[in-house]
Amino acid sequence: MTFRHAAAVAGALALAAASLAAAETYHLVATIPVGGDGGWDYLSVDSAAHRLYVSHATHVVVIDTRTNAVVGDIPDTPGVHGFALAPDLKRGFASNGREDKVSIVDLATLALVEKVPTGGNPDAILYEPGKKEVYAFNGRGRSATVIDAVKGTIVATIPLDAKPESGAADPKAGRVYVNLEDRNAIAVIDTTTHKVVETWSIAPADEPTGLAIDAEHHHLFTGAHSGEMLMLDTTTGTIVAKAPICRGVDATWYDSATKLAFSSCGDGVTTIASVSGSTMQVAQSLQTATGSRTMALDKATHRLYFSAAEYEPPTGGQARPTMKSGSFKVLVFEK
């Protein structure tokens, strides 16, 4: 092969690699107008049913992920933070922060089944399929309320002595993990005894919020307000890798198929990290929208969904800009 031919081949390979890299980056593919006023928090995806559930102030908006159209609404969820899905039971569970209750909802009809009292300000919420239980993490109550997802009864109230944030479950290990935001730690809950069996410090990182799990490889991923994503070993609590992330993190997700971890931030950036074994490095800084700190991952399509809104320019020394009325929307990104 001549030098000129070798150079041409190398150039072609480099161009192909660049094109492949560009094709693999996340980019905006749709904007779903929702409207209405008020804030938001978590989003949840039911991949099999092609449904996206979006918390919005006093109700949960339901979107068809095939058509990107609003197809339903779950009312009377004051101060809703999250919506946990139990597809095997055809039930959903909304954490209503302003009334200290969890709404149990029939996913087929979106009708209310009943409401269950919790500790103060239930925030993050998850379904643990191993025991068929729901964990509502109470921010003001500094506890977790465990609910029998079938009977709708309270199984246990677990004191955490800290402000809990997002959680993640590993049914095979019989563990639920939850961020303790004001203790800079992660608590490990035994799902049989409903007791905290370990507490892992993440210092010098602080204020962990989003939490995701790769149960197969025994890894947890948490986003910290100190500006980093941490990967921990779920068997020891050891921090095995770190990556710098955006500012004002809230949600964190992990996609086991693509081996990508995501942390979304209020500064309008989502950091995407590539995971290989026990290493992690930033693959993309995805521009989303200012205030889009929460997101959901559809693990079937690998799409990302973000709540967003438009804002009026701040005036008179406002600490926060005012949301434009009716501007609430969902942004959709894919590879």
What secondary-structure arrangement, pairings included, does this model have?
Blueprint: H1 3-24, E1 27-33, E2 40-46, E3 51-56, E4 59-64, E5 69-74, E6 80-86, E7 91-96, E8 101-106, E9 112-117, E10 122-128, E11 133-138, E12 143-148, E13 154-159, E14 164-170, E15 175-180, E16 185-190, E17 195-201, E18 208-214, E19 219-224, E20 228-233, E21 239-244, E22 249-255, E23 260-265, E24 269-276, E25 279-287, E26 295-297, E27 304-308, E28 329-334
Antiparallel strand pairs: 1-28, 2-3, 3-4, 4-5, 6-7, 7-8, 8-9, 10-11, 11-12, 12-13, 14-15, 15-16, 16-17, 18-19, 19-20, 20-21, 22-23, 23-24, 24-25, 26-27, 27-28
Output the keywords.
335 residues, mainly beta, Methylamine Dehydrogenase, Chain H, 4-stranded antiparallel beta sheet, 1 helix, 53% strand, disordered N terminus
